[in-house]
């Protein structure tokens, strides 16, 4: 490494041992993808796939051509939320995503497996390779916004996505429990190391509303989202309640029928990218 090295490998012609490799992959030649937003969480069970689905539906409602790449290979729940049971097809050119009722393009491993309940018993590098192929081998067509439903944590798949797909920003999904704050910080720090901006934070299961009196109850304790957002310099955040209608819609494959403006500010932020 030269003593004058400024770490800007992309603009440097030197061939040194410390040169950073560029793993960025091109999408399929018949795909034209605008903005790519990754939805991440430091742990499972906080509603990351729900938020991915709601953002995609909101984007489609706003008139944008929208797609979901389901990178949670071992726990793919996107097809279930949208009621997708047909299998993805393809030809010599590549694989075609499956369209939801409102026209959102979806690719998930469950759309390729013979039985959706079969477990995916693969090692990390194989899973990461499959996710990368969802980007390179799927014919997405013209897409304004692609949302990537990431697996929880900071392992092989998130690393592969951040290194090989041009992600424009991430949205972090969390919940009010104090333990989650530490895990959120890990996700934020990974994004910083990969040079990807945090566009917003969503706190799921933030409160419940009594159907009789309308009073709010903070079941998991006082909300931490505003403090967490301020701590990491994130300007946009949202709070989603416990709402049995949302879980019922996911179970019925009817998430596209959801009603609620909880993520309107988040979509406004994405439109400014």
Structure description:
The protein has 273 residues and is of the alpha/beta class. It has a single domain, classed as 3-Layer(aba) Sandwich (Rossmann fold), CATH 3.40.50. The chain is built from 8 helices and 12 strands. Strands 5-6-2-7-1-8-9-12 form an 8-stranded mixed sheet, with helices on both faces. A hairpin with a 2-residue loop joins strand 3 (89-91) and strand 4. Helix 3 runs parallel beside helix 4. The longest helix has 16 residues, at 178-193. It is globular and about 60 Å long.
User: Strand order, biggest sheet?
Assistant: 5-6-2-7-1-8-9-12
Overall number of strands: 12
Most strands sheet = 8 strands, mixed
Q: What is the residue-mean pLDDT, rounded to a whole number? A: 88
Count every helix, treating DSSP H or I runs of 4 or more residues as helices. 8
Rg for CA atoms: 19 Å
**Range of helix content:** 25-40%
Q: Ranges with pLDDT <50 over ≥5 residues?
A: none
Q: Would you state the CATH class?
A: Alpha Beta
Q: In the residues, how many domains can be counted?
A: 1
Structural class: alpha/beta
| Named CATH topology | Rossmann fold
* H and E order: EHEHEEEEHEHEHEEEHEHH
Gap from first CA to last CA: 35 Å
- Give the CATH H-level superfamily: P-loop containing nucleotide triphosphate hydrolases
- Strand content is 15-25%
What CATH architecture label applies? 3-Layer(aba) Sandwich
What global shape is seen? globular
